């Protein structure tokens, strides 16, 4: 992966001039994380937007009983941040942690906001990206309410086949709203039918 993949990611929704692309690429710094290293611990304030150049990360919430609930995964060519914390300069409710050794392109929120003011095409990119993310979260909420555990697991496997062998099963389980024990039963059943 390289800066070319970052620019191709943006070109899916909009076009920047060659000069704007150059300015945009000059804005990021590289952040490397080891497996299980925190990018954003709960309680801290998020000041950056991150593009995943390599690796895998997860966003999770820790409830009052100490149980983790995975909310989001990000692999190569995906963006990750805590939009709530970043937008409101408020402590994050979530943790963002590397599932694998990862390399990220880190964009300062302040620099990014200023660049978007001068570059409507980039603002369009982030607006459309956030819209797509909101739609995905909305559909996920509906699936948690309307699908059985087995249906949610089958859907996850179909929607994200590249994540199945990269993310521990216990994290997939909480992402689709199952206990690890029930997930193991469903996982075994689905594998038998394949």
TrEMBL record:
- Give the superkingdom in one word: Bacteria
Q: Which residues form the Cyclic nucleotide-binding domain?
A: 31-118
Question: Could you tell me which InterPro entries the record lists for this protein?
Answer: cNMP-bd_dom, cNMP-bd_dom_sf, RmlC-like_jellyroll
Specify one Pfam family. cNMP_binding
User: What is this protein's record name?
Assistant: Cyclic nucleotide-binding domain-containing protein
State the organism named in the record.
Spirosoma arboris
